[in-house]
Design goal:
It is a single chain. The protein is about 15% helix and about 45% strand. The longest helix has 15 residues, at about 1-15. The chain is mostly beta strands. It is built from one helix and ten strands, in the order H-E-E-E-E-E-E-E-E-E-E.
Length: about 120
């Protein structure tokens, strides 16, 4: 029962988080993964931009950032973070998922690359 309530709370917190995170300046974009909850679920950046993505696992279970279109598959242990850079992506949508929790709607997200 506690586990169900905890997951419901995590989903509610993710929904209360900003709907989208927009890249500004040289600051990295942070994706938090918490036991199947990805926040934010939408990141926006300009086409051709270079941006650092930090994937932080604040949960108690391992997470896996996976994006087939970006060709990224990264396992993140609980309480750790990793980062990677995106350079010169063309406009489009790049889906990603916490593959270890992909059966949860809250484990999915998208990076939206707009026009330059």
């Amino acid at each position: 029962m506690f586990r169900v309530l905890f997951k419901s709370l995590l989903v509610a917190l993710a929904l209360a988080a900003p709907a989208a995170l927009r890249a500004e300046g040289d600051a990295p974009l942070v994706i938090e993964m918490t036991d199947g909850v990805v926040a934010p679920q939408r990141l926006e950046l300009a086409a051709g931009a270079t941006v650092t993505i930090v994937v932080r696992n604040t949960g108690t279970t391992a997470a896996e950032f996976e994006s087939k279109r970006l060709r990224k598959e990264i396992i993140v242990a609980p309480g750790t973070e990793t980062q990677f850079s995106l350079r010169g992506l063309p406009a489009g949508e790049y889906d990603f998922v916490d593959e270890f929790h992909e059966d949860m709607d809250s484990a999915h997200g998208v990076i939206v690359v707009g026009q330059e």
